[in-house]
Amino acid sequence: MSSPDKILSFAGLLMALAIALGAFGAHAFEDVLSPERLQTWETAVQYQAWNALGIILMVLTGKSFMVDIKASTILLLTGILIFSGSLYVLCLTDLGWFGAITPIGGILFIIGWSLFGWKLLTLKK
Hints:
Elements: H1 4-28, H2 35-65, H3 70-93, H4 98-121
Helix pairs in contact: 1-2, 2-3, 3-4
């Protein structure tokens, strides 16, 4: 997935999925998950949505300023998969070790956003 248009499309799908998972969690899991696990589910949805929006922002900024954002978007996409994905699996399976994977996704978010900022900061005009 290298072209900006494909990345935008994928980010849009991630947003749609975040909305669907948020609604599903709020309604289907309300009486199934503990309040702590329901909060964990909501955290996964929020991080997925914010970073999917971030990917859209990155692609549009990259197009506008002719900045290579490929690495940043790959880091955010992978971060969503690992961070939110591990939390979804944790909530559905109650296997606590999935929570140990989650920080890896968080680190990928931090690196992706930092790289994006660095690319803009060092932009030659």
